[in-house]
Write a structure and sequence with these properties.
disordered N terminus; binds 2-acetamido-2-deoxy-beta-D-glucopyranose; alpha/beta; about 40% helix; about 375 residues; Rossmann fold; two-stranded antiparallel ribbon; five-stranded parallel sheet; globular
Amino acid sequence: MEKQSSVSVVLFLHAALLISTCFGSKSWPSKKQVALFIFGDSYLDSGNNNYINTTTLDQANFWPYGETYFKFPTGRFSDGRLMSDFIAEYAHLPFVPPFLQPGFRQYYGGANFASAGAGALVETFQGEVINLKTQLKYYKKVETWFRHKLGDVEAKVTLSRGVYLFNIGTNDYISPFLTNSPMLKSYSRSRYVEMVVGNLTSVIQEIYSGGGRKFGFINLLDSGCLPGVRIIKPENNGSCLKEVSSLAKLHNKALSKLLIQLGNQLEGFKYSLYDLNSNLRQRIRHPSKYGFKEGKTACCGTGQFRGVFSCGGKRTVKKFELCEDPNEYVFWDSLHLTEKVYKQFANEMWSGRPLNSKSTTGLYSLKDLFQDL
Ligand SMILES: *[C@@H]1O[C@H](CO)[C@@H](O)[C@H](O)[C@H]1NC(C)=O
Ligand SMILES: *[C@@H]1O[C@H](CO)[C@@H](O)[C@H](O)[C@H]1NC(C)=O
Ligand SMILES: *[C@@H]1O[C@H](CO)[C@@H](O)[C@H](O)[C@H]1NC(C)=O
């Protein structure tokens, strides 16, 4: 035991030496790097909510979050890494730090603005999350940083080489069911979807006008089938909540349509679109085909499907059970996925065939977007 650990210390020192020799004193990532800017919700939040005044409902900075890969809680809503962490790795970037993490930083590698619980509408979990509009405001600060560093012209060129990854909307559609907010009752369903997609569109257009050209989108999962949503109506006996799933479906149609439009309208607009909806549904239905034992019940939580959002024992309900091996599960907690499934999605998103492939203008895989087009 003793001997083994000293061997690994030596190995570690060697590795550290090797890294510092390879990269020398160069700051890394450099301004030649294609940056990754991340917007959205808990599926991409690497810890911004650790630094806002919110509740444990929107935080994951306690055990057992992070237990497998990091061995400590980082604020990520998973046992380990998220899709965006794998995308950064494939793009040869270090982990993209949360924008709100204190400390001096340079942004040549990008920044992560995502916030658990956030939606495209400011009303979604209002006061407890960093909504998409505020995420854009933070991005504007980063734009200013680039202009100070590089000048207006070179900043715009550098920002145009960056990739802008989005996962947003699920909270807009599930929050009315989780909180009894009147938002969904005040509008028709199609008008509500129009508002969500409209607010996302404004953010895309703002980024585009600052120079952004390459966008990665993830469509909305079948949110009615989340363990935490299946249990909202006990009389449903645990089947997927159709009202919620159909909103996600409407949204996804509108998103596909929007991207085809933007591809035709905006000069130089390039995008990828990952079909999270059908790829997650496949794994819920046929977990063993993808290397999982359980597709419906979460690893961490309590109650039917472990759908009660209690993982870690720091939220309203304190009781929770934790599975032995998260790698056997699709769902990590009642609303989020395990690192294993996030990695599968990141792999497909990186090089797989994107959705919307009938449209031609501007559609790429994420990998293509990172190659300097
Ligand atoms: C944080 O939010 C709580 C509840 O809304 C409030 O009472 C408290 O003053 C806030 N704290 C800060 C530092 O803003
Ligand atoms: C954005 O959302 C707000 C509600 O938060 C709505 O009133 C507004 O019309 C939406 N904007 C667009 C462009 O759809
Ligand atoms: C729900 O499940 C119970 C027990 O399995 C069954 O008796 C009941 O008929 C089911 N209800 C519906 C609406 O499917």
